[in-house]
# Entry
Amino acid sequence: TKWVYTFGDGTAEGTADMRDLLGGKGANLAEMCNLGLPVPPGLTITTEACNWYLGNARAYPDELAEQVNTALAHIGKVAGRDFADAKRPLLLSVRSGARASMPGMMDTVLNLGLNDESVLALAEGVGDERFAYDSYRRFIQMYSDVVMGLDHEVFEEILEDEKARFGHELDTELTADEWKQVIARYKSVIEEELGQAFPQDPQQQLWGAIGAVFSSWTNARAVTYRQLHDIPSGWGTAVNVQAMVFGNLGDGSATGVAFTRNPSTGENTLYGEFLVNAQGEDVVAGIRTPQNITEAARIEAGSDKPSLEKLMPDAFSEFLGICNRLENHYKDMQDLEFTIENGKLWMLQTRAGKRTARAGLRIAVDLAEAGMITKQEAIGRIDPASLDQLLHPTIDPSVSRDVIGSGLPASPGAATGEIVFTPDEAVEKSEAGKKVILVRVETSPEDIHGMHAAQGIVTSRGGMTSHAAVVARGMGKPCVSGAGNIRVDIRRKLLLTESGPLKEGEIITVDGSSGQVLRGSVPMLHPELSGDFGRLMEWADGSRRMKVRTNAETPADANVARKFGAEGIGLCRTEHMFFEDDRIVAMREMILAGDEEGRRTALAQLLPMQRADFVELFEIMKGLPVTIRLLDPPLHEFLPKTDEEIAEVAEAMKVEEELLRQRLEALHEFNPMLGHRGCRLAVSYPEIAEMQARAIFEAAVEAGAKTGEHVVPEIMIPLVGMMTELEYVKKHIEKVANDIMEEAGQKIDYLIGTMIELPRAAIRADVIAEAAEFFSFGTNDLTQTTFGISRDDASSFLSTYQKKGIIERDPFISLDIAGVGQLIRMAAEKGRAGRPDIKLGICGEHGGDPTSIHFCEELALDYVSCSPFRVPIARLAAAQAAL
Ligand code: PEP
Ligand code: MG
# Structure
């Protein structure tokens, strides 16, 4: 088996297509070499080797050592050095690299190959003893931490101690001799703590690092990350071993990261940061504040530190050329890492850059309009769920701001919440239903769970490419990074600002678009839906087959949904129209009435309200289909509870409170969700369905006259399990329709259909279809009744199920295709068998979930219906499903 692939000197054994085998980093390093770009020579050990290692008690395959040594010899030849030769040492970087970027894994070991002997040669080679010993101690520190598992704080303590002893403030002030003393102490603490010496043999160092990369695939952080991002554990990671280049050889050297377009806005300008005389991860670590790469960015940022463009014009222009080349080659925005060693540019990494939803849209639209990709490709590139970021509020610009801190606008959008200082608190409080803002000095992969739980993130340290910034953008959460004028006192749980301290639990607002942190909560504005968003949505609409409707019952929701592009209402939950103050009393009267006459009196009060509501909805929807569902109240949600409420209803009904209490008692149900709701109510009290039908038909006539549109109401009967239930209710509705047509002297077109939300309905769908002109899958109840899991009580234990791997995803959020989905498939088939032209839709929560929408397309449903804010997500997901 070939376990090792080499690259360098303008050729490579791998290509970009081999990401499964070489990992993203390795495949792209190979590709850059093939393109003739300056890449330090190296080798990639395959993900298959990792799987072999993990599957064979952490042993290596037989041929691996030989293949690595052959490749090392090749690297040595290209680099003009030799790994085994302490006089001309080949120093290496070792990095992990999975198929998908995975911040949870071991990242990097630099300067591998240094030991007591080769450090002398390095000093002589570069003519800088101080540099050599600084490199050596960095290597010992990094290696001991990530390979040998010794906490880096041990070394930081020693370093602080020694600096104090020598009277230095900064690391850069230590002399070569002083570094030697630090190194001696490092070595002895390793022996003390680990009972073994720091390895001097480069081969031993290398294999230690390779094993550590492989093993890091199974560390707790990586496992959590994989769970959060649905990454299969069978992928494994590759290892990239590469000749070192030094960005810290003095003022002619530098290291940096860049995006070929702005990752926050998508603007087509090179965007990046670098540090002079720095090594590897110094830029992303956020310890020194980095400089801008381009002069334009420097001017815009108002920085007085020179740009790379000014400082190293030759390296800059070469870099600029490479950026364009890579973007054209990959046809996407790239995220690059580079090092300049004594004026010579080296490329260390390229990959598709992480970006905000806004930037993602702009880049996809720009690339499609420039003809670099097709419109279909542009549609396919946007994660529908990411649109959520664009639909979320921003701070109303007209209100005054109480700014308590400011930093970099690291991830756009705004959010308000209570201050928390640790990721665990963030999780705890958010599970308790609170909204929180995570405030940290800086973040690391250990904080991911807290970042997920938080509404927004603030750090007092770090740049635009710091961990907090990159991760927040990926998650679509507002983030302000590097807010230098605040201090985070973790121990006392205080956020120290220039205008005084804030305690844990106090409310702040993060504005990730401006980089400000505000005291308190602030009014927010809804987003603009034109521009790139509008363009992409237009393309998506041209590519999809399914219609997208909305679940709405208020004019406000219906209007929002129309703005978001809803093509009708798929579910109007009429019971929700009675929650308001003046109506709930009449509603309660109706429910609590002792006889039909009492019910009819209450219904007579409700009729004009219902009619007016429907007229408004029909007007807003301008002839688009509107599905109105007959009353489906889980009764307990409507019954009066407090003494005050009971007194109020008793008075309205003109009955004794005592009598009312008896009635309440009689209506009590043990399982209201499985109780007297849905069509069961209409079967018991057909006058309710009649009143609603009357309101609908009268409204259709009225709205039709007002708007000139042909209004065709779709009346939907809920919670049907038997065809006979449906037929019974239908008969009453048809009678009302005929009455009104006579009264109005005009014909009214309408449809009568049912929800399929009980397993029995799915099983008997062919028979039910004979009486139903449409089906709408009520996947909330269908999930509840198929699993036998109460939808209102599920959250308390389903998260445990997820943690324990019993279920992958919450079936109330993403459709359980294997189970509930099969019932839907069967019902769709049977429904079509019973009535070939039956209209099929979905109106449970799943109607707005991209994965579930793909399944709906597979079943060729006619439409999905979801809450207004998810309409754009559904439009895009439906388009992707149809591609
Ligand atoms: C459903 O059950 O999926 C549904 C849409 O109805 P409701 O959520 O109102 O029960
Ligand atoms: Mg339901």
